[in-house]
Amino acid sequence: MDDLLSGLYLLARWDVLAALLVGSIGGVIIGAIPGVGAAVAIAILLPATFSLDPIVGLTILLGIYGSSMYGGALPAILINTPGTAVNALTTYDGYPMTQNGQARRALALAYSASFFGGVFAIICLIVLSPLLALVAPHFGSREIFLAALLGIILVVLAHRGQIFAAGMLACFGIFLNTVGLEPVKYTKRFTFDQTWLASGVDLIVVVLGLFAISQAFMLLVGKDDSPDPQPVEGSLLSGMRELFLYKRVASAAASFGVVMGMIPGVGEFTAQFMSYTYAQKSSKNPEAFGKGSPEGLIASEASNNAVPGAAMIPLLALGIPGEALTAMMLSVFYVHNVIPGPQLFQNNMDFVMALYVAMLLLNVIVLIFLIFSTNLLTKIIQVPTRFLGIVILILSFVGVYSLRNSTTDCAIAAGFGVFGLILKRLNLPVVPIILGMVLGNIMEVKLRSSMARVKTPLDFIDRPIAAILFALILLIIGLHIRTLIKEHKNKVPNPDTDMHDTQLR
What is the pLDDT of residues 179-207, one digit of tens each? Predict the structure, then answer.
């Protein structure tokens, strides 16, 4: 209780409250504009947050992270175009409801389900925080190394059908982290006598290139579009009471979001599809899914909004980001010398509780804002895409240059922007590169610090948590290999059976 009160006191500053308000409302607006998304906005804002207090900078980023999915539901329901990638499943049932003249009902269900999922996740985290504070100190260097390795493996395996490409891109991210001066003896690695490589490849430059600049290029080279959604008539408050009719689906979807958000590399998409599948199988009207089912809409929105709160668990407790947005936030911690991990829960529990309460408040702010300004947001959807591309490009280069006043960084960011555009055109993931850079740095530092106390390979896993993490790594790899073998057997025909079938014909 004392930690909670201290966290509330930390939040009761005008600059923190202003950051919460700007981040929450700004995230909704950004999410409502198709083609932008939270990743682009956070990448652009990262350089600016480095000069702010850590609680202020992180509050802005958390506001955008937690509220962008609310806004992304608006175009998904009204014009069948998801504002953010994780709102794609919302179009399955949201847009058919709009076509049936139920746009107000669909938006009310989406907003209320999102609010329920977000609040449910934060309450779970507040309850689990004392447990985390007890478990976190038992993570030493080797445990954090194994947890980071597990995170990379999960990130790679999460890209089904693109595992080889995701693995290569994650390795490329790990390689980028090794360029420059190594962290122990400060010897040069992979600089090739080029002075501009001595300081390494900055994570923020890569983030801005792969996410913001590449997205600007995508908008500029694509067709100029200006959607024209119809205004929503009636009050949204009356429709929000309908969520209580589907409380079982909402509770299950939020639970899926919390569990999946805690696992590095899994995230919103897995939570959505698991909750959507559960809702469809347990529904009395499964044939309505994809045609305007309120249960499908609730399953999608409640699960994806429960993930951001849960995704903070591995970040805060172990210093291990589970996806690109939390990886960006990790850099803000490091800049201000606030190191996530076991010590954070022991020494700065008030800071952790302040972040949780801030996420709870942002859900309240966003819901109130959406109730009274949905029709105003429909005007924002109409912004031409090429104009957005120009704005994003300018802001991205301003952000890159402001880091170190370096034109070299701008050139590197432009190069990664082109590389990101190529990856997006080929439908290849860019997230493994960022996580490879972040987790690769954690793995290198923790491995080198732990090897001083390791005499034999078995010494590395001679502690209970390390042994459990190692067993999990082996189990996940083994299960994946087993799945691949089964898929291969199903695809490869049996020659004897085929010959017998041919003779019968």
Answer: 887 766 778 888 887 777 777 788 888 88
Q: Is residue 501 part of a domain?
A: no
Q: Which of 29 and 499 is assigned the larger pLDDT?
A: 29
Q: Does residue 467 sit within a domain?
A: no
**Does residue 269 lie within any of the structural domains?**
yes
Q: Which residue do the tokens 């930690």 mark?
A: 3
Q: In whole angstroms, how far apart are CA 176 and each of 143, 189, 208?
A: 24, 10, 15
Q: Work out whether the CA dihedral 122, 147, 350, 133 comes out positive or negative.
A: positive
Count of Cβ atoms closer than 10 Å to residue 233 Cβ: 8
Cβ–Cβ < 8 Å for 145, 320: no
Which residue range(s) make up the domain with 371? 2-453
Do the Cβ atoms of 368 and 28 come closer than 8 Å?
no
CA distances from 379 to 96, 215, 342 (A): 21, 22, 46
Q: Count Cβ atoms within 10 A of the Cβ of residue 188 and give its class: 0-12 exposed, 13-18 middle, 19 or more buried.
A: middle
CA distance 89 to 287: 16
Model confidence, pTM: 0.78
Pair of tokens at residue 455: 């005499």
Contacts of 304 (CB under 8 A, 6+ apart): 69, 86, 87, 89, 114, 117, 257, 268, 271, 272
* 273 located within any domain: yes
Q: Which helix (H) or strand (E) holds 87?
A: none
C-alpha distances in angstroms, 142 versus 266, 322, 346? Answer: 23, 19, 19
Task: Give φ, ψ of 275 to 5 degrees.
Answer: -70, -35
